[in-house]
Design brief:
There is one protein chain. The protein is α+β, with helices and mostly antiparallel strands and 208 residues long. The chain has helices spanning 3-9, 20-41, 43-93, 101-114, 146-157, 192-207; strands at 118-124, 128-130, 133-144, 163-172, 178-189. It contains 6 helices and 5 strands, in the order ααααβββαββα. The chain is rod-shaped, with a radius of gyration of 45 Å. A hairpin with a 2-residue loop joins strand 2 (128-130) and strand 3 (133-144). The longest helix has 51 residues, at 43-93. Strands 1, 2, 3, 4 and 5 form a 5-stranded antiparallel sheet that branches. Helix content is 59%, strand content 21%. Keywords: Membrane, Transmembrane, Transmembrane helix. InterPro entries: PilO, Transl_elong_EF1B/ribsomal_bS6.
Length: 208
């Protein structure tokens, strides 16, 4: 008798009389059904929790990598800040103090006279405060030949203190020489007393 015939002859009401092969097959079938039901009704929540944990793990991994990149960039930024501070300190040393301004004006004047130029105008203007610095404009007008005017401009750029020539205009004169009109600008840093006075003025203006 084969398995199909045995299945046809079994009585569902008397499982105890089933052949052992049928009993084993029935047990395996019930086991599979129970496991499948457990997976659907019980393990489903655990599966959802597992997926949620995996997503959270990925978020934490991404956050870690972002923080790691920021840490690497922070070292670069710190180095750039140090380099900037050093450059700023070097530029600051090129700015005269208040007591050195008169000597600097004399240096500008001597730079022109040393090239044989004639000063028709040398008029320092009022200082203009710009943050922790002041800008000192000087209106100048000198006459001389082309080469001497060029050398004068080069000498100005090579002064130990920062001086720039702005609004330059060169025109011929009736005497066969050239006339250079320009605004020389130099800068100085404010001393502690001036900075304190500037802060007091700013506070007084804010109260109004």
């Amino acid at each position: 008798m084969n398995i199909i015939e045995e299945l046809k002859n079994i009585d569902p009401k008397t499982p105890g009389s089933w052949p052992w092969l049928i009993k084993i097959l029935a047990f395996v079938a019930m086991f599979v059904v129970i496991v499948a039901a457990g997976a659907v009704f019980d393990w489903q929540d655990e599966w959802a929790n597992l997926q949620s944990s995996r997503q959270e793990e990925q978020k934490l991994r991404d956050t870690f990598l972002a923080k790691k990149r920021e840490a690497i960039n922070l070292d670069i930024i710190k180095k750039q800040l140090i380099d900037t501070q050093q450059s700023f300190g070097a530029l600051l040393k090129q700015l005269p103090s208040k007591s050195e301004m008169d000597a600097l004006l004399t240096d500008i004047n001597q730079a022109g006279l040393g090239r044989g130029l004639q000063f028709d105008l040398f008029r320092p203007g009022p200082e203009v405060a710009t943050g922790v610095f002041t800008e000192q404009p000087i209106t100048i007008k000198v006459t001389g030949n082309y080469d001497d005017l060029g050398k004068f401009a080069s000498d100005i750029s090579q002064l130990p203190r920062i001086v720039t020539l702005n609004d330059i205009s060169v025109n011929p004169t009736s005497g066969g020489v050239l006339s250079l009109d320009a605004t020389a600008k130099t800068y100085r840093y404010l001393d502690e007393d001036e900075l304190a006075a500037q802060k007091r003025t700013a506070k007084a203006g804010a109260r109004k």
